[in-house]
## 1
Amino acid sequence: MSYCREPVPDLLKRFVEMRFKLVGENGSIQTNDEGLLSQLGGRHQELFRGFEIRIVREAEARWMSAPTRVVCSSTCCILLSESNLVMVDRVRRQTFAFLSADTDASELMDHLLPVSLNHDHGHLPR
């Protein structure tokens, strides 16, 4: 039996270092992408609302045109597209996002985070 000497890739990005952080009165944003934080400017305060937000920039993922799906309940919300994933835990007040290399800060601020943080689950069909 032979063993592979190559390291196994962390495909789930469990061990991504979040070296860049913004802290506000009501929450924080952590990311592995310094450029993303600089693109946010002062707009990050409007996102916090008591949430801890962690954003992993996925360098290998590229944007693909696909319908965005939102699955939502009173306790969580998941926004999924071909190249981005945003998960919100409303009970723990935590948000995790995995963004493609092609997703810029304005897309994150104007669409992805507001839809997932503010999605009204009360209007979903039962």
## 2
Amino acid sequence: MRRAVALAVLVICAFTLPSAAAQGDMRLGSFTALWCNYNARIDIQSREGTSWIFHGRILIEATGQYDRIWIEQYSDNSLRMVRYLEGANAGATQTIQTHPPQTSVLPNRGPGLFTTFASERDYGFGCEGTRSWIIIPEG
């Protein structure tokens, strides 16, 4: 009986432990980006439980602006990212909708695989007609 209970507890624990991110999955960390034609760093700081919604901050390198960002990953692994501008443009937003990601070797980034989320559409304050992407190292 004890053996059966111990086995049941082990099975339950195995199914509730967090798993490593799969290829193309968003995760916590700091990542290189191009945001509305500006070099940036996106710092993903938290995830809403087991949902595919993330919160963090984005640093625009040219200006030093460090704003809140909200990211949702869809079932096809594409992303919708919303930057909430602060300072002189407080209250305005910029939104990036990406294509599903592509994973490949990027020799100029170092060894290993990298997942790139390239923008399908950029819109919002100062973003019309620009391009954006975020690169996440795999492994």
